[in-house]
Write a structure and sequence with these properties.
The protein is α+β, with helices and mostly antiparallel strands. Helix content is 34%, strand content 22%. The structure holds manganese (II) ion.
Length: 348
């Protein structure tokens, strides 16, 4: 059964008459499409699914995509109007993945229907990857990993953060990626203590910490990894060396817990325990990890408040980090497939 069929199967079990998807990741998943695509995807409980899309978008599309009919909207036509035209009446309960408050009120008024938003139907399906998705993610991981390895290996004194980030982005596209999975982070020295740093003109010096956080988008699927090294080793500060050791140990401990059935918050907690043994837990500024797939951040979240249980087929990151202001930051991250026999690392 294709994905639309599986979604319709779920709709028939919930009493929802129509599922309307506006989020790009959900549309890509439901249609099972490997290029960028956008619009609004209408999936009735039974019958034909339709993608409403702009004339501009539809130029690149055939008249149907894996059994989904493509409906071109008039130039200048608002998506809401297109929606009303296609949906007509006869539906009582419509669920959206996201919708503006204004649009929801208008639809309610015009159609007299019950509207719910933040639908979980597709995001739950997306959290468990099928074999085709896993193949794409392996390739996304391979492109990012080999490029990160080559970049770190080839670093030269005097290169800037921006130059290194551009080199990474350029190389992954040559290797078949559509684009980086997110804004590539290259941070040298003290810049590494900011977990969400934007590369600058700062140049590389001997003894600097080098933090590279990067990914690749391959046929709409993402990978995510972070490497931290000391450039021209042997001259790194002792604190940095200890931070690297703590983060590596925290990561190994978290890997040891990342099995199906374990609550995500327990994996996060395990990493925190290790960091606290080193006295670094107060410098751990973010959650331990996140699901990855068509979106760079998607369920399940691996964080202190996440009660989600890991499932076989989840793809997640584990990325403990320690950021000491004025000293530097260390983060080490890989992307893993969760299997019955434990986490399998996709990045390397
Ligand atoms: Mn990440």
């Amino acid at each position: 059964m294709n994905r639309i069929g599986r979604i319709q199967d779920r709709l028939s079990r919930t009493g929802i008459d129509l599922l309307a998807l506006r989020e790009q990741g959900n549309i890509i998943y439901a249609i099972d499409w490997d290029k960028p695509i956008s619009g609004i995807l209408l999936i009735p409980r039974s019958g034909e699914a339709k993608l409403l899309t702009s004339q501009l978008e539809s130029v690149n599309l055939p008249s149907s995509l894996n059994d989904v009919k493509v409906v071109k909207m008039e130039r200048g036509e608002r998506i809401l109007k297109g929606f009303l035209k296609e949906v007509g009446r006869g539906f009582k309960y419509i669920e959206f993945d996201s919708i503006d408050m204004d649009d929801a009120l208008k639809l309610k008024e015009e159609l007299g229907v019950l509207i719910r938003t933040r639908s979980k139907i597709v995001s739950e399906m997306r959290a468990v990857k099928d074999p085709c998705e896993i193949e794409k993610m392996k390739k996304a991981a391979e492109i990012a990993s080999s490029t990160a390895g080559e970049l770190l290996e080839g670093l030269k004194e005097g290169v800037s953060e921006v130059e290194s980030a551009c080199q990474y982005n350029y190389t992954i596209v040559l290797k078949g990626a559509l684009k980086p999975a997110f804004e590539t982070i290259v941070a040298f020295g003290e810049d590494s203590s900011n977990p969400h740093f934007t590369p600058s003109s700062r140049r590389l010096r001997r003894g600097d910490v080098v933090l590279l956080d990067a990914g690749a988008d391959y046929l709409n699927y993402k990978s995510d990894l972070t490497r931290t090294i000391v450039f021209k080793g042997g001259v790194g500060k002792n604190t940095i060396r200890e931070m690297i050791e703590a983060v590596e140990e925290a990561k190994r401990a978290a890997e040891g817990k990342a099995f199906p059935g374990v609550k995500a918050c327990e994996i996060d907690e395990r990493a925190c325990e290790v960091l606290s043994e080193y006295g670094f837990d107060k410098y751990f500024a973010h959650g331990l990890g996140h699901g990855v797939g068509i979106d760079i951040h998607e369920p399940p979240s691996i964080a202190p408040l996440s009660n989600e249980e890991l499932k076989e087929g989840n793809v997640i990151t584990i990325e403990p980090g320690v950021y000491v202001p004025g000293v530097g930051g260390v983060r080490i991250e890989d992307t893993y497939l969760i299997t019955d026999s434990g986490p399998v690392k996709l990045t390397f």
